[in-house]
Write a structure and sequence with these properties.
Structural class: mainly alpha
Distance between the termini: 26 Å
Number of helices: 18
Largest sheet: 2 strands, parallel
Strand order of the largest sheet: 1-2
Shape: elongated
Helix content: 55-70%
Radius of gyration: 35 Å
Number of strands: 8
Order of helices and strands: HEHEHEEHHHEEEEHHHHHHHHHHHH
Strand content: 5-15%
């Protein structure tokens, strides 16, 4: 519980709502916890706690008490005013008896609850034990009187009750006007706290104490630390990429330089793109919904804004993702027999990483809105149309209608496959080896013409994928903002 309170103090909120802060604590820790909360209240914060049957010594530490029975208010006011109030209505608390236990025992009788509720006007009255003398009616300084005060926003309220007028002043913590009654240490603590709160308010940027750049830096460091500590997850991803790279390399071993394996060339390009698509889509769908719950709580506590969080989330995943993708691409590239050229290998890895980033954005968009159960159903269902458009029409490319060609450009998997084919068989590649008498697709230009992609370019397909990635990640941002607003 003390750790939870410490986490809430990160952003120094002016108001605390704590649900049973002493639950599960021993007596000593309970007293320390309440003393800490009282110290926080003395520094200018408002601390509201729900607590059940506290000890008498613990009850005295609270400044005000609000007691509820059957959903109705049976007492509201200063803690010191509760016993005199009960005595004034003919229900005196026995000596050496815990007032908290006594008032709870009174609630066992429904008639008593009705009486107490009527006396308090169901919470519309406030019982105060701190009164100031009014000019027209002197008061004995040693006498304790109970004053009924109707709640009001005014700092000072005067009411009449049984021909007696009393005044209650609401304490203000903007300044420490009288520090003579406080010790030097308490006065210094309160003044420094109030000075800090003034600086906090003056330096507040869009409701946050730090700038977006500082929030981004802190969040990025935290996320990178979390990734580095998840050693098991990193090992699993590493083994996954290495094993899949070796398996794909064995399936298409040294086929990229064989002019008789045109359809295998297409299968290899489709297989590579689908690997990156499904690998990066399903991980956020399964993991991110749990993280959204924590982020929603931290954002509600105003620890950070959504924009720097989302930027840090995007950047933090890039280093590991790029490293694993390049490792996978290196294994596949040399095993399938693609001629090594630095520019060809660079673009090959670039396309793989872009497809991976687009797929991750698609998975995050689903994970930010749906829970794990619904996401597992929606993820494969939503990816199916992109996959269908990716493999459509390779054997009759020149007869595809114009509207269908435009629709196919909305599939990032299709764009990735086309870009991969252009990378492997473009860049002025020399004719492929041919072991038969005649190989129709030995020349790369013939293959590109057959697929009707000789008039496009790798960079155009990359641009389309980047545009789709922007759309998916924007949907993820909108989904997070919608989740935080609900």
């Amino acid at each position: 519980m003390t750790l939870s309170i410490a986490l809430e103090l990160v952003n120094n909120p002016p108001i605390f709502f704590l649900d049973e802060p002493t639950s599960g604590l021993d007596t000593v820790t309970t007293v320390q916890c309440v003393k800490l909360l009282k110290q926080l209240a003395r520094q200018g914060r408002t601390v509201v706690c729900t607590i059940h049957q506290p000890a008498a010594s613990l009850l005295e530490m609270f400044d005000q008490v609000y007691v509820i029975a059957d959903g109705r208010c049976i007492f509201q006011g200063d803690t010191a005013a509760m016993v005199p109030f009960l005595q004034s209505i003919g229900m005196p608390c026995p000596r050496h008896h815990n007032p908290a236990d006594f008032i709870i025992e009174l609630t066992e009788n429904q008639d008593t609850i009705n009486l107490l509720c009527q006396e308090m006007l169901n919470g519309k009255l406030y019982k105060s034990a701190k009164l100031e003398n009014t000019p027209n009616e002197p008061m004995n300084s040693m006498e304790l009187k109970i004053c009924y005060q109707i709640e009001d926003d005014a700092p000072e309220t005067e009411i009449m009750l049984s021909n007696e007028k009393c005044t209650y002043k609401v304490p203000e913590y903007n300044e420490i006007s009288d520090s003579s009654s406080l010790s030097s240490q308490e006065s210094q603590t309160i003044n420094s706290s109030m000075a800090w709160m003034k600086v906090y308010k003056s330096s507040e940027c869009c409701g946050y104490p730090t700038t977006y750049c500082e929030q981004f830096r802190i969040l990025l460091c935290r996320m990178l630390l979390q990734i580095s500590r998840n050693r098991q997850g990193l090992y699993i991803q590493l083994v996954h990429h290495i094993m899949c790279g070796i398996l794909i390399g064995l399936c298409f071993f040294n086929m990229a330089n064989d002019g008789t394996q045109m359809f295998n060339h297409l299968k290899m390009c489709v297989g590579l793109v689908i690997f990156f698509a499904y690998t990066q889509i399903m991980v956020p769908v399964l993991i991110y919904p749990q993280e959204v719950k924590l982020v929603k709580k931290e954002h509600f506590n105003r620890w950070y804004s959504l924009t720097p969080y989302y930027a840090a989330l995007t950047v933090s995943k890039i280093p590991v993702q790029v490293f694993l993708n390049i490792l996978f691409c290196t294994i596949v590239y040399f095993m399938v027999g693609v001629p090594f050229q630095l520019d060809r290998f660079t673009v090959f890895c670039l396309i793989a990483n872009i497809v991976s980033l687009v797929s991750e954005g698609f998975g995050l968009a689903i994970g930010s809105v749906f829970n794990v159960r619904n996401g597992c159903a929606i993820g494969p269902t939503a990816i199916a149309p992109f996959l269908g458009l990716a493999i459509y029409g390779f054997d009759f490319a020149h007869r595809i209608p114009l509207m269908m060609k435009i629709l196919m450009k909305t599939s990032f998997i299709r764009c990735g496959v086309v870009a991969m084919v252009l990378t492997i068989f473009g860049f002025d590649r020399k004719p492929l080896e041919c072991q038969d008498v005649y190989c129709h697709f030995a020349k790369p230009d013939v293959l590109l013409n057959y697929l009707d992609i000789e008039n496009t370019s790798v960079w155009f397909e990359i641009f389309i994928m980047l545009s789709i990635m922007f759309v998916f990640r924007s949907l993820c941002y909108i989904g997070l903002r919608w989740r935080f607003a609900t």
